[in-house]
Design brief:
Layout lengths: L1 E4 L5 H10 L4 E3 L14 E4 L6 H6 L5 E4 L9 H7 L2 E3 L6 H16 L2 H9 L16 E5 L3 H12 L3 E6 L10 E4 L3 H4 L5 E4 L13 H6 L5 E4 L8 H9 L5 E4 L19 E3 L10 H17 L16
Parallel strand pairs: 1-2, 1-3, 3-4, 4-5, 6-7, 6-9, 7-8, 9-10, 10-11, 11-12
Helix pairs in contact: 4-6
Length: 314
């Protein structure tokens, strides 16, 4: 059995895999055009290099291990037609992403950007307009593993948390959970609207002009899920017309964000270049899930952890 990684891992991680699974032939840091892909039973990838042409070259591929959460750019129809299993690393992003969200919220609440700016010009000015988190409300779109961790941290600061998902099913660290259909009526309660939703047919352009008009003028909108949640023009208008107070954006319709894009220069927008999930522990955590699933696979257990439903996109 051959396992191909289309990215590289550290030498000690390679040795650990080879020691734990001596019956497996591992190939690391291979490109889609490399011959090893053609005989791989398992491909471990970030997902962006998997296309229909690569699938046509694989003879015995049975499992795609996606070392990220999103699969929207992959050839899902072809994967389903071939009966190839997909798993991802859902859950490993929750710590760095939740910490990133909290860091941005605290920075804005405690006026850190203004303090840093004044330091550059050596201005001693104690009028900074800082406020507290306690007593505020956060509405979290997608209260799954990541959203629940965001909620847990915010609750520690005395923030009321409202989760919003398709089913309305109760979620950890949410004081209340509402369904998507009720979102418009509840947006006006939130001081923070935080999205960690994946990209699916249901969530694409889910937020419309009317949603931003329903938000508080002081709200901070944060998108840490996928850039197609809202049309760029709608969000730009909301920011330029002061319909919302601030936006913190980690994801965009086009990435890298073009230099001429207005988001870069708007004073009430923070551009984060899709870095909220980055952590020195990312690959380490991904390999824990992969190793657990590989053990099951070798034992003939097909009920793997983090199975991805290609139809749903997550």
């Amino acid at each position: 059995m051959e396992v191909v990684f289309t990215f590289d891992v550290k030498d000690y991680q390679k040795r650990d895999l080879q020691t734990k699974f001596p019956q497996v032939m591992f190939h690391f840091n291979k490109k889609p055009q490399d011959a090893e892909v053609e005989t791989a039973t398992v491909i471990v990838t970030y997902g962006g290099d998997i296309d229909a042409a690569l699938l046509e070259r694989t003879a015995v591929l049975e499992w795609l291990m996606i070392a990220s959460a999103g699969v929207e750019k992959m050839p899902l129809a072809e994967i389903a037609e071939r009966g190839i299993r997909m798993t991802n690393v859902r859950g490993i992003h929750k710590v760095p992403m939740a910490e990133s969200v909290l860091a941005h919220i605290l920075a804005l609440r405690r006026s850190l950007p203004l303090i840093y700016e004044r330091q550059q010009v050596k201005e001693w000015n104690r009028k900074v307009g800082s406020t507290e988190l306690r007593g505020s409300t956060a509405l979290i779109l997608g209260p799954g593993a990541i959203g629940s961790e965001i909620g847990r941290l915010l609750q520690a600061f005395g923030v009321r948390t409202i989760g919003c998902n398709r089913s309305g099913k109760k979620c950890e660290s949410m004081d209340e959970v509402i369904i998507f259909d009720d979102l418009l009526d509840r947006l006006g309660e939130a001081d923070y609207v935080i999205s960690v939703l994946p990209s699916t047919p249901e969530t694409k352009e889910m937020l419309l002009e009317e949603h931003f008009k329903a938000m508080k003028e002081t709200v901070v909108f944060m998108n840490f899920g996928r850039g197609d949640l809202v049309k760029e023009s709608v969000l730009l208008n909301a920011l330029k017309n002061d319909e919302i107070g601030h936006a913190v954006l980690d994801v965009f319709e086009t990435e890298p964000l073009p230099q001429e894009n207005e988001f870069w220069t708007l004073p009430n927008c923070t551009v984060s270049p899709h870095v909220s999930s980055l952590s020195g522990k990312y690959v380490e955590r991904a390999l824990v899930i992969f190793e657990s699933n590989l053990e099951r696979w070798l034992q003939g257990v097909k009920a793997l952890e983090n199975i991805v439903d290609g139809g749903k996109g997550y």
